[in-house]
Design goal:
There is one protein chain. About 40% of the residues lie in helices and about 15% in strands. The chain is of the alpha/beta class. It folds into two domains: about 140 residues, 3-Layer(aba) Sandwich (Rossmann fold); about 280 residues, tm_1862 like domain (pyruvate-formate lyase- activating enzyme), CATH 3.80.30.20. It has a six-stranded parallel β-sheet with strand order 2-1-3-4-5-6, with helices on both faces. A six-stranded parallel β-sheet has the order 7-10-11-12-13-14. Strands 8-9 form a two-stranded antiparallel sheet. It is globular and about 80 Å long. It starts with a strand and ends with a helix.
Length: about 450
C-alpha cells in the first residue's frame, strides 16, 4: 500500500514554516496523531506524512489518503478530500471534527474513523488491501493498547520544537460545556501501561518531550506510579493538568522529581459565575495566585488557558483579565475567544446566537456568536488587546527576573522566555492589535459630555 497522511493547515498557518521569521516552530510538536496512524498501518506500507504548515501536498499515486482535522481546518480538509476523490483515490477523515460531525464529513470523505484510531485504522487498511468496499464509519477502541514506538523518522525534526511527544492517558472525566474532549472519548478515560511509557520515553532521542494528555494527573495513583518510574529517565517535560493539584505537595514533588518543568492549566476565567455556567466550579479564582506560587515553588512555570466572551463578561472583562494575569503571576497565556465548537454542549446551547458558520473561523481567534453584554466586534477587539498587551516586550522583560528565581536553572528560564518571544512573534506576524472596549466606551461618553456642555 502507498498511504498519504495529511495534517491540513488553513489561512495564515499554511506553509508558515517557509517564512524566515516567526515561523511557528515553537507551536509545532510531533504530529502525534498521524504518527500513531502510521504505526498502525500494514508493515509493508509505504507511508508519507505531510504537515501543511511545513510543506506542500504531493501529487502521487496513492492507494489511500488519511486526513485528520480540527474544526478550524475542516474546510481545507474537505477541499483535499474532494481533490483526491476526484482522482479515484479513497479518502478517510478522522480527528475531532469528523468524529463529532460525522454526517457532514461523509459528504466529502469515503469513510470516517470515529474516535481514537486504534482498532479502526487496522480494519480499514485490511478492507482496502482486500478490495472490499469501505464501511462508512469505523469506530476506534480507546481501550486498545497503543503502539509503544512511533516512526518519528517520517517527519522533519528541524521543523518542530520537538518530535518527542507522547501521551500516558486518553480522555477527561470533567464535563466543561465548551470542551469537546469528553464527548470525543465518550466520557471515558484510559491509561497506558507504565512499563510501555518508560520504554517509549527512554527510546526518545531528545531529553525534552511533551505529554499531550488532556489531564495527566486526573488519576492520582496512576500519576504517582508513572512519575516514580520516570525519575531515572533523565528527561524534562511539560504537560496539561488541572489547577486543583496545586494543593497536593506530594504530587507536585513527584512531578518535579520526574522532570516536569512546566504545566498548562485551564484557568478559563476569573469570574465564578462563568465557571458555574460552564460546569467548571472546581476552579476557584480566589486560589489562583496561591496555586501558581505552589507550581513555581516546585520548579514549574505556568501557562494558562484563558477564555473571554462568557455570558457574565461585559466590556470590563479585558482590563480586569490582564490585571489579574499580572497579579496571579502567570508566565504565559493562550488567550481564546469563547468558541461554540460543533459537537459540544456549548454549541447546542448557543445555536440561536451563532452569527458565523464558517468553520475556518472556529480557531478561538474569531468571535462567531453574539455575546450577551457586548458586540461581537468588541469581543474580538478586546481579546486581541489582551494578547498584544500581555506579550508586549516590556511585559515580557518584567517577567524575566521572576522566571530566573524559579527553581530549575537557566534551562527552564530559557524555555519560558523562548515561548513568550514566540507568542510575541505571532502578534507581529499576524498583526494582532485590538483595543480596550471599556476604555473606548468611556472616551466616547466623555466626548459626548463635552459636546453637550458647549453653549448653543
Amino acid at each position: 500500500m502507498n498511504i498519504l497522511l495529511i495534517a491540513p493547515a488553513a489561512g495564515n498557518w499554511r506553509k508558515i514554516a517557509k517564512r524566515s521569521f516567526f515561523n511557528g516552530k515553537t507551536f509545532r510538536f510531533s504530529m502525534l496523531s498521524l504518527l500513531s496512524v502510521a504505526a498502525l498501518s500494514p508493515k509493508n506500507a509505504k507511508i508519507a506524512i505531510v504537515d501543511e504548515q511545513t510543506e506542500d501536498i504531493p501529487e502521487g499515486d496513492f492507494d489511500l489518503v488519511g486526513i485528520t482535522a480540527m474544526t478550524a481546518v475542516a474546510p481545507r480538509a474537505y477541499a483535499l478530500c474532494d481533490h483526491f476523490r476526484s482522482r479515484g483515490i479513497p479518502v478517510v477523515m478522522g480527528g475531532y471534527h469528523a468524529s463529532l460531525n460525522t454526517d457532514e464529513a461523509l459528504e466529502h470523505a469515503d469513510a470516517v474513523v470515529s474516535g481514537p484510531a486504534y482498532g479502526a485504522w487496522e480494519q480499514l487498511c485490511a478492507d482496502v488491501q482486500a478490495g472490499h468496499p469501505l464501511t462508512r464509519v469505523y469506530y476506534g477502541n480507546p481501550a486498545a493498547t497503543p503502539p509503544v514506538h512511533l516512526p518519528r523518522h517520517l517527519i522533519a525534526k528541524d521543523q518542530y520544537v520537538t518530535v518527542s511527544a507522547t501521551f500516558a492517558t486518553l480522555g477527561c472525566t470533567n464535563h466543561c460545556q465548551f470542551c469537546s474532549i469528553n464527548r470525543f472519548h465518550g466520557g471515558q478515560r484510559h491509561s497506558r501501561s507504565v512499563a510501555d511509557m518508560v520504554s517509549e520515553l527512554k527510546a526518545m532521542p531528545d531529553d525534552f518531550f511533551v505529554f499531550v494528555d488532556d489531564n495527566l494527573t486526573q488519576d492520582r495513583p496512576y500519576a504517582l506510579e508513572l512519575f516514580k518510574a520516570l525519575e531515572t529517565a533523565g528527561k524534562r517535560w511539560v504537560t496539561q493538568v488541572s489547577i486543583d493539584i496545586a494543593d497536593d505537595d506530594e504530587l507536585l514533588s513527584a512531578m518535579r522529581a520526574a522532570g516536569c518543568m512546566g504545566v498548562f492549566v485551564g484557568l478559563e476565567t476569573f469570574n465564578e459565575e462563568n465557571l458555574h455556567l460552564q460546569d467548571k466550579e472546581f476552579n476557584k479564582p480566589a486560589h489562583y495566585r496561591d496555586a501558581v506560587a505552589k507550581f513555581h515553588d516546585h520548579g514549574m512555570y505556568v501557562e494558562a488557558g484563558v477564555i473571554v466572551g462568557f455570558d457574565a463578561d461585559d466590556a470590563t472583562v479585558f482590563r480586569n483579565t490582564l490585571r489579574m494575569l499580572d497579579w496571579v503571576r502567570i508566565d504565559a497565556i493562550q488567550l481564546a475567544i469563547l468558541t461554540p465548537l460543533p459537537g459540544t454542549a456549548l454549541h447546542d446551547a448557543m445555536a440561536s446566537r451563532i452569527i458565523d458558520h464558517d468553520w475556518e473561523h472556529y480557531d478561538f481567534r474569531h468571535a462567531v456568536f453574539e455575546p450577551k453584554h457586548m458586540s461581537a466586534a468588541a469581543l474580538q477587539a478586546g481579546a486581541d488587546w489582551i494578547i498584544r498587551r500581555f506579550y508586549s516586550p516590556w511585559r515580557i522583560l518584567r517577567r524575566v527576573p521572576r522566571w530566573a528565581a524559579i527553581p530549575g536553572g537557566l534551562r527552564n528560564c530559557a524555555y519560558i522566555l523562548a515561548l513568550n518571544l514566540a507568542y510575541y512573534g505571532r502578534v507581529r506576524r499576524f498583526h494582532i492589535g485590538g483595543y480596550d472596549p471599556a476604555e473606548e466606551a468611556a472616551t466616547a461618553r466623555h466626548r459626548a459630555g463635552k459636546k453637550n456642555l458647549r453653549p448653543a
